[in-house]
Specification:
Structural class: alpha+beta
Radius of gyration: 25 Å
Strand content: 15-25%
Shape: globular
Number of helices: 11
Distance between the termini: 28 Å
Helix content: 25-40%
Number of domains: 2
Largest sheet: 5 strands, antiparallel
Length: 392
């Protein structure tokens, strides 16, 4: 049971009935439907032991595809192994209030970018205050736009080493108390102020799309009343239990970095018209429940979490920012008396193999020996080969 099965059954009808879909959303739906099918080509792999042949279809490698994230996640975590520090990590979540969701339908790229930028700037500003930590920290921000039932729920997961560099970069500053990093209420108010400031600036510069359901907010009086209402409640910012040290942080990050709106294993049933999927009810002790939606409603909820083209959803900042990251990490490890990056990296040193050497990929379904990757074949060629393999 896969999202691709729903698209094969109702994808064309869904696109026809929803002309508001963007070119990016249509492209993602096509990629998911064609992923690991003959339409993308593939390879004819061969078992070196028994000679059994089987076709491996190519994947779409789209970041929204439920079938293409495992390898991308492993590659990303492998590359981040050099950046981890042997200190405790904290997990902070920033969430946009529901009152802003109507603006997200036509301004999602801006709102999502402000969410990531404001949350990171909030943590850096509060941490730099000598009353709280007085240090320069490093942050890895990961944007999610969905809730468990696929409703729009934009929030950012921030994974932060517990501590930071002193202003003169001469020593490492640790939090004053175990289990406490930065005050929650202060983070909430600073975050709200920074986001609303960006929102007001965009409105003053006429950069917000206020068509459709938000058109009444073109009126300045309506707009100011809307913004003032955002200050009536505290914005949700909370810290989860500590991640742990270097040995645990990569495994923990793997749960968030390349997650898509819904994974295939959560789909329970599809009768041709309705989809049943599993979700976790956080409000009632993380109980597992099921929900049934029409296929059209399920796909509508799914496509609203397709990000704009080239939008970066994983962003480092502070001393983990890409610019000068290696130098700052080297300094941090020196202050913490940690081994060098080369010694702590989990990258294995391998010797290069010749281009003619066979590459083993997966186990033969007949004898269990290694399957050897065959030549890349076109979709037309694969169709002919499929008939021959099935017949044999």
């Amino acid at each position: 049971m896969e999202v691709a099965d729903l698209l094969h059954a109702h994808g064309d009808t869904f696109v026809e009935q929803h002309p508001w879909l963007s070119a990016q959303q249509r492209s993602v739906l096509r990629a998911i439907a064609r992923c690991r099918t003959a339409a993308l080509g593939g390879q004819l792999d061969r078992c070196h032991a028994c000679g059994h042949q089987a076709i491996s279809y190519h994947s779409c490698r789209n970041r929204h595809c439920p079938k293409c994230q495992a390898q991308a996640r492993e590659r990303w975590l492998h590359a981040r192994a050099r950046d981890r520090l042997d200190v405790p990590y904290v997990h902070v979540v920033f969430t946009l209030p529901h009152g802003l969701l109507p603006l997200a339908y036509r301004n999602r790229a801006r709102l999502y970018a402000w969410l990531v930028q404001a949350s990171g700037a909030t943590l850096r500003e509060v941490a730099a205050d000598p009353r709280h930590l007085g240090a320069e920290i490093g942050i890895l921000s990961i944007l999610h736009t969905w809730g468990q039932t696929l409703v729009r729920h934009p929030h950012v997961h921030c994974v932060v080493p517990a501590g930071g560099l002193s202003p003169d970069h001469q020593h490492w500053i640790r939090p004053r108390y175990d289990g406490f990093f930065l005050p929650v209420k202060v983070r909430s108010r600073v975050f709200r102020g920074k986001f609303v400031e960006a929102l007001r600036r965009a409105y003053d510069q006429n950069k917000l799309d206020l068509a459709g359901g938000s058109e009444h907010r073109r009126d300045p009086a309506q707009w100011h009343a809307f913004v003032d209402a955002l200050f009536e409640t505290d914005w949700v910012v909370y810290a989860k239990p500590a991640v742990g040290g270097a040995s645990a942080v990569l495994r923990y990050l793997g749960r968030y970095t390349h997650r898509v709106a819904i994974s295939n294993h959560r789909l329970c049933a599809f009768d041709g018209d309705h989809v049943t999927f599993q979700w976790k009810d956080y409000a009632h002790g993380d109980q597992r429940r099921t929900m049934t939606l029409s296929t059209m409603e399920f796909l509508r909820r799914f496509v609203q979490h397709i990000l704009p083209r080239r939008f970066v959803r994983i962003r480092p900042s502070g001393f983990l920012a890409n610019t000068g990251r290696v130098a700052r990490l080297t300094l941090t490890r020196t202050l913490l008396a940690l081994p060098s990056a080369a010694a702590t990296s989990t990258h294995a040193i391998t010797t290069a193999t010749t281009e003619t050497a066979p590459r083993a990929t997966w186990a033969c379904p007949r004898c269990g020996a290694a399957m050897i990757v065959g030549p890349i074949l076109s979709a037309l060629r694969l169709t002919t080969i499929t008939l021959r393999v099935d017949t044999s």
